[in-house]
Each structure stands twice: as C-alpha cells, then as structure tokens.
Amino acid sequence: MPLSPDEVRRIALLARIELSEPEIAAAQGQLNAIFGLIEKLQAADTRGVAPMSHAGDASARLREDQVLESDQRERFQSVAPHVERGLYLVPRVIE
C-alpha cells in the first residue's frame, strides 16, 4: 500500500525533519520503493530454511588466550596522586 503525501508529512513531523513539497514527493517515491522491496522479501517462501546468524558461512578463528604484557600496576600507581589498597582514589563528583 503506497504512502500518501500526508503520511510522508506525518513521518517527517515525527522524525523532526523539515521537508519542502518537492522533497516530500521525492521521499514519497523513495519510501514507496523501500516498502515495495519489503513486500517482495516478505513474499519469498522461507519454509524449511534454517535461521542464520551471519549471511556468509563465516566462523571466528580462535587463538590461544595468552598474556602478552607484564603486570605494571605498581609502576603506574607509584605516580598516581592517591592510591589505597591497589585502587585509584579520585575526587567525589556527586555530592
């Protein structure tokens, strides 16, 4: 069911988009084309097709979880203004 110019105006109002009359006509054509494509997609017979998580047959390559950096917490906290029991102390921002 194609959109009318009034419906396009209503959508533009809801989206807080200001459209001139020529822009309304162009948007109407574009939206109707999009809705036409959606109708074609919905008409496709998908019975027996399993849902997919990815459009391609992709799989994530897994690697060994390795620690590549040394623990430098003591060095970083040695230059911090305020530290208590391994935690950085910062000024209160909410009173």
The largest beta-sheet arranges its strands as 1-2
**SSE string, helix = H, strand = E?**
HHHEE
> Which percent range fits the helix content?
40-55%
Instruction: Report the sheet-strand fraction.
Output: under 5%
Distance N to C terminus:
56 Å
Q: How many helical stretches?
A: 3
Q: C-alpha Rg, in Å?
A: 28 Å
CATH class of the domain at 5-43: Mainly Alpha
How would the global form be characterised? Answer: flat
Unreliable stretches (pLDDT < 50, length at least 5) are none
In short:
The protein has a domain of 39 residues: Histone, subunit A (Orthogonal Bundle).
Task: Describe the protein in words.
It contains three helices and two strands. The chain is mainly alpha-helical and 95 residues long. The protein has a domain at 5-43: Histone, subunit A. It has a two-stranded antiparallel sheet. Strand 1 (83-84) and strand 2 form a beta hairpin. The longest helix is centred in the middle third of the chain and has 23 residues, at 21-43. The radius of gyration is 28 Å and the shape is flat. The two termini are 56 Å apart. The model has no long low-confidence stretch (mean pLDDT 91).
